[in-house]
């Protein structure tokens, strides 16, 4: 069985297309758990009317805590061997489940299956995804949220979708939890997922400067040791705080600095952070003199 988990928050205008795309699957051994995340529009009544004649749909009505919590709650009560997250404003091709399950049956060692995708709504073009590599995943997301993975891996390899990522990128952070360098990831060479583009979405909100800064620092901090291990670096120092680690990785990525194992990266970074604090408390001319002296000793 495949468990499709569908969070819905104020998506009454779109939820019918999402539900219909599930109902039309050529692979019929599925359940769909729809989570109404305290919508303030008419989503709840629309959902009830759409699913009343199909027992494979289950409806949960919960307090609003965000998309990550909604997915986690749905997965917790799911019964399927495989999980497919599907947002309430997107849709899938009738053969998506069938072709994905064929791949899992062909190679049981497969960790995740996704596909080619297309935008629809305000934009109608192919979704040009970067080719997946484990190394690329450390620089950005290359898998949309509606990929299919094993339920057992959700529990054995992750702590669930991160409820602190309220602005977005929770799918990218989840893949960083779920996958490792040995994971078999397959992209089906067919458009089977359709991603709706709207005037305003969580993706546009996360790209706002403050939201992006907070989000990236959280992800980098959470996966600090993975970043150092896979991009090079010194693993000896683990005592810095979670948030400080996130700022550290962000600093190196933004400045295109190499995380070399022969560099005292963390000590240099912490020193640079201290300079910022010093700059706020002394005159500019004095700070410049101090900075010039330090630069002769600290090489980034």
Task: List key phrases describing it.
Spore Coat Polysaccharide Biosynthesis Protein SpsA, Chain A; 300 residues; alpha/beta; 9 strands; 19% strand; single chain; nine-stranded mixed sheet
Question: What is shown here, in short?
Answer:
This protein is α/β, with parallel strands linked by helices and 300 residues long. Helix content is 41%, strand content 19%.
Describe this structure in words.
With 300 residues, this protein is an alpha/beta fold. It folds into two domains: 2-200, Spore Coat Polysaccharide Biosynthesis Protein SpsA, Chain A (Alpha-Beta Complex), CATH 3.90.550; 209-295, no CATH class. Helix content is 41%, strand content 19%. The protein has helices spanning 15-23, 43-51, 67-76, 96-106, 151-157, 170-178, 202-206, 209-222, 224-231, 242-254, 265-281, 284-295; strands at 2-8, 30-36, 57-61, 82-85, 91-92, 110-121, 126-127, 148-150, 184-197. Strands 1, 2, 3, 4, 5, 6, 7, 8 and 9 form a nine-stranded mixed β-sheet that branches. Helix 8 (209-222) packs across helix 10 (242-254).
Furnish the topology, listing elements before pairings.
Layout: E1 2-8, H1 15-23, E2 30-36, H2 43-51, E3 57-61, H3 67-76, E4 82-85, E5 91-92, H4 96-106, E6 110-121, E7 126-127, E8 148-150, H5 151-157, H6 170-178, E9 184-197, H7 202-206, H8 209-222, H9 224-231, H10 242-254, H11 265-281, H12 284-295
CATH topology (fold) name of the largest domain: Spore Coat Polysaccharide Biosynthesis Protein SpsA, Chain A
CATH class of the largest domain, named: Alpha Beta
**Average residue pLDDT:** 86
Question: What is the gyration radius calculated from CA atoms?
Answer: 22 Å
Helix content: 40-55%
